[in-house]
Amino acid sequence: MKKALQRKNYVLDVQTLKKAQKAIGAKTETETIHRALEMAANEAALAEALHKLVHRGKGRVIDAFSSR
């Protein structure tokens, strides 16, 4: 699936961007932003999946697996 790209203009904290770039290991600022956004989206999906799992286990993750 081809990604829809669009030019955007934002005011960002340069030091934070550089810290993120180093932490992520990205070569460019654009790559840093793309990867950080992907990471945020993935984290939200993981949190939702964990929430569903815990709910299924009635508050205990171990019970979620034994209730299958």
Count of the separate structural domains:
1
Distance from first to last alpha carbon: 35 Å
Number of helices: 3
The biggest sheet amounts to: none
3D architecture notes:
- With about 70 residues, the chain is mainly α.
- The protein has one domain (about 15-65).
- It is about 65% helix and about 0% strand.
- The protein is built from 3 helices and no strands.
- It has helices at about 15-25, 30-55, 60-65.
- It is elongated, with a radius of gyration of 18 Å.
- The two termini are about 35 Å apart.
- About 0% of the residues are buried.
- The model has no long low-confidence stretch (mean pLDDT about 90).
Helix/strand layout:
Blueprint: H1 14-24, H2 29-56, H3 61-66
Helix pairs in contact: 1-2
Concise synopsis of the structure shown:
Helices cover 66% and strands 0% of the residues. It is mainly alpha-helical.
List keywords for this structure.
68 residues, mainly alpha, 66% helix
